[in-house]
Amino acid sequence: MNEDKPTVLDWFSRRLNLTEIFSLLTSYGIYYGELDSRKPLKEALAEAEKRPVALYSRWPRILSLIAVVLIGLELLTGGLLALYYLPTPDSAHPSLGTILRDVHFGDFVHQMHFWGAQLLILVLILRVIRYFLGSVYKAPRELIWVFGALLLLAAFHLDLTGRALPMTDQGYWSSVRALEIVGAVPIYGPLVHFLVGGDGAFITELTLIRFYVLHVAVLPIVAVTLIYLYFSTIRRVGLGDAKHGNEVQSQRVLRSQLLTMAIVLTLVFGLLVTLAVIAPKPFEREADPFATVPGVGPPWYLLAPFGFLEWMPSFVPQWIAGLILFLAFTLFLAVPFLDRSTKGSMGRWVALTIGLLIMVAWLVFTIYGGRVA
Amino acid sequence: MSEESSTADLPEISPRRRRLLKWLTGGFLSLWGFGFAWVIASFLKPLHSQGSLAERVIKVGPLDSLPVGRAQLVRRGREPMFVIRTGEESMVGLAGVCTHLHCVLQWDDEQEQLQCPCHEGAFDVNGNVLKGPAARGLRRYRVETRLGEIYLHLT
User: Fold this and answer.
1) What is the CATH number of the domain that holds B142?
2) A37, exposed or middle or buried, with CB in 10 Å at 0-12, 13-18, 19+?
């Protein structure tokens, strides 16, 4: 760059704290170093490039980038769908019909939104598993686990509220099933029922509008905030599993990260298009609250708790089963504070064994739940 | 970011090949971005429903309920229209919005004209401007009677 000739960037740099704005953007996976926001952008970047930074284009760290890209896609497609969707019980289903039939690329955008959500949940589950196996939750990285787990929960809730919105018979009854599961959990269940304004037996117009507000406003803000907090933690403490020369003295981090984002976006997009073509989500019939559709289970990621509740013998009160679920959920969030074992110690093996047992139990209950649903 | 520092830790690539790769990446990404923009722009395009037959015909009501010389307001969504019974067998369908500004007209039984409440405009039963600032007449619609029911055709 020629020092004498002021560029557009310089013009703005004199009037805006570009470093701060850029620093905010980097919290969504573009760059992982800390930036000195008191310095002009060019200087701060030049300084940051001298520090070693982990390459996030490598497996398994790429999962976070994929999650960011997917959340971006969900926000974009969701924003588009919101232009045509009408959140009342009478007009919700017809408005989805309008999107799918009349709006140009409406079906495509809807499929991308649906499959993007499923893929996002899968990626977030994989991410939590990989944190566990890589023990990316030992001090001072407890918060990485907590934010990862909370983001997964936010994604569950986003998908749950989203499923109810079109008022299709599968979506409607699947949300009712999900609300039943949630309702079995003490404390949390009544709270959710209070928030969505119903006890789960019925989805009225008031429930629907609450689902809608949660889905389009509250939960996306929560998810985006959690991603921000996650990358903020990363910038402070790192992921701590840099080995095999993954951490490099990279002098072109920014460009390579942007390129990685573009490649990830392309691949994820390709995968989503493939899924949308070979396994499109069908446009189901409108829900009739007075005709329960047989054989509709909860969404795939809730099959395990559903299977567990079904598997419990009937003499056990439901709140006890719910309490077990609640404790499991609390323990899941508190993993970094429970397992303080060091690498290679006996405690680490115990923790790994327990974790693997829980994963196997989850799988078994998922299969069981899928059968009884 | 200067060119020197960005190539420092890369393996040797000839400038020609580097330029080609850059060009290919740029071309691919722009093509992709264009497709993206195209999909979004098409999605945003407002809907103009062609409408099915059922949507193009409005059932107004029984003929007996509309005496000669009276008009009935018909609502099609948010769009008002008038069906005026001009004679025993003749009826006229007219748009119910003034062509000047978007004021909804009112039927005056005595003078047998549609009057605009905003700027004292008036239209006769055929939709012609009688007075007021409106420059164009009202759009006319075909009206039909079948089995004692009035139907308004929108096309």
Assistant:
1) 2.102.10.10
2) middle
